[in-house]
Amino acid sequence: MSRRRQIYEGKAKILYEGPEPGTLIQYFKDDATAFNAEKKGTINGKGVINNRISEYVFTRLSHIGIPTHFIRRLNMREQLVRQVEIVPIEVVVRNIAAGSICKRLGLEEGEPLPHTLIEYYYKDDALGDPLIAEEHIAAFNWAGPEEMQDIAAMAIRINDFMSGMFSAIDIRLVDFKLEFGRIFDGDYSRIILADEISPDGCRLWDMKTGEKLDKDRFRRDLGGEEEAYQEVARRLGLLDGENSGPGEVFDLNSHRTKLRGTPVKPKK
Ligand code: UDP
Questions:
Q1: CA 75: distance to chain centroid?
Q2: Nearest to 45 by CA among 77, 75, 73
Q3: Which atom of ligand 1 is nearest the CA belonging to 174?
Q4: Does the Cβ of 205 fall within 6 Å of ligand 1?
Q5: Which pick of 61, 95, 244, 265 has the fewest CB atoms within 10 Å?
Q6: Ligand 1 midpoint to CA 219 (Å)
Q7: Which stretches of the chain drop beneath a pLDDT of 70?
Q8: How far is the C-alpha of 45 from the C-alpha of 241, rounded, in Å?
Q9: Which residue has a Cα nearest atom 13 of ligand 1?
């Protein structure tokens, strides 16, 4: 089907060789997994929405000076990104207690944390992504001390920015996961934000109703996951043309990209 070389297939995305050296194409699937892939399923249209939400968030983050791998969205399910060497750490930022921290520390879901917490998990599916301390990161040289300073500083800025962005649309940013990568320039390397930011890796609660608008709907069999992801995109203004990419209007119902001001004629 595709003549492009596949570099990697993950749980929710596929990476293909990009058109130029140092680039990759990130393809967003509808596949969903939870509990270290013990639970598998699909969320219809998720890949399309996550591609769009992640494009939007990465673009806004780049406007506040966060370096990211995002170059541009190519189509409904694909974006062009810079190839990075992934730092094997999942960075989780928590504002409110939910998920694994509740089990681990006996906290009540929804309890505000005394202050924002940053946690690190070692990216290793076979080990179930264990929680690690910065000591482990240094000891095993998964990232250097300066890299960790950059990662922590970016994580805090991203949290501040995204908390405001979501609270403006009545969504509470409970927690989220980030991944970072290295790009090389001669003898030097620097850290940039990689992967994606979408309801797959964030906990997003409606501020008024407390309704979950994220992957917990799938994890906990609550139903309505497609609608929840769409609702996040809709509130961000991504479904009706507002804030959409240059000259493009997103139309989920037709699953077709419209050109602004140009009526779309169905292709035969
Ligand atoms: N998260 C993620 N990928 C993972 C683990 C966690 O995207 O492999 C996200 C998750 O969606 C949540 C946050 O990181 O927004 C914190 O997740 P937690 O540690 O509570 O794990 P969970 O209970 O969701 O497995």
A1: 17
A2: 77
A3: 15
A4: no
A5: 265
A6: 11
A7: 1-2, 241-268
A8: 18
A9: 176
Place of tokens 């219809």: 44
- The second-level CATH assignment, the architecture, of 6-84+225-260 is 2-Layer Sandwich (3.30)
Q: Where are the domains of the chain?
A: 6-84+225-260, 86-217
- C-alpha dist (Å) from residue 110 to 46, 102, 128, 217: 26, 9, 25, 16
Q: What is the pLDDT of residue 3?
A: 75
Q: Which CATH class is domain 86-217?
A: alpha beta
State both tokens at 31.
Answer: 């596949």
pLDDT value of position 243: 53
Distances (CA, A) of 257 to 10, 51, 78, 79, 199: 26, 13, 13, 14, 22
Ligand 1 center from residue 25 Cα (angstroms) = 24
- 177 CA distance to ligand 1 middle (Å): 6
Residue 130, token pair as written in the block: 């264990």
pLDDT of res. 25? 98
Question: Does ligand 1 lie within 6 Å of residue 173's CB atom?
Answer: no
Q: Return the pLDDT at 258.
A: 39
- Model-level pTM? 0.91
Q: Whose CA is nearest to atom 21 of ligand 1?
A: 100
Is residue 87 classed exposed, middle or buried when 0-12, 13-18 and 19+ CB atoms within 10 A define those classes? buried
Nearest to 151 by CA among 237, 84, 223, 222: 84
